Fold:
Amino acid sequence: MNSKDWRYAHASAIGAAHLAQNTVCQDRFSCRTIETSGGEVLIAVIADGAGSTSDGQHGAQTACELFTEEVNSFLKSENASVKSLNADFGKRWINYFQQKIAAEAKTNGKIVRDYASTLIAAIVGKSAAAFYQVGDGAIVISDSGAAESYRFAIAQHETEYVNMTDFLTDAAAAERLRFALIEEEIEDLILFSDGIFPVAVNYQANQPHEPFLMPMIAPLRNGNANNLNEKLENFLQTPKINEKTDDDKTIILASRAFSKSNLIAKSEARA
Structure:
């Protein structure tokens, strides 16, 4: 999809393990741009519902919708900007999310844990970006799109036990929230759920795996992104990917490189 400043694409694919168990994909995502007094802002969110729960996908959907709505409301309030987002905003949002989920669980005769989900989120403005994370998943950024420029917006968190992570429904979720504010112009943004880790992360270097990620975002950078959502979804379901991971897989790709190159070209033409 295209906006004034951004081109972005996204896809989800159910994991082989979920197909074998006859369960649905429990990843959810949201990606949109909004106009603010400080210019266009991109909001991208991925939530991964816990596979061991009955309604993790509903918790994930609620998380994506609620986070996007609250950020939108905040940024359109007086004197608000991306730079004014902070960890306290995230903690308040988690408390709000937990209240919503508790009410839904009570109505449906469930427990809060049934809606367990992780969250990764990026709010990117013209010259600043805020990032939030609870649990696994990754946010990758680059200020140029050049090789060796892609890095994690929030450092990867090592857990004590394999396959253990934090969830938004945990009592300690607000305390375990990870937040980063980066005051620079970000050109490329990539978010992905943990199902893509085996191909998107260089574990040895603990860095994004650029040979995988750079070709993925290249169509957005060069303006040749026709049907990219469909192509991404098909790619995430190929045997090559499924050999590496049997989990649900979700990715969001966004770039403003093509928009910037157009502006430069127009400026040079006027000159």
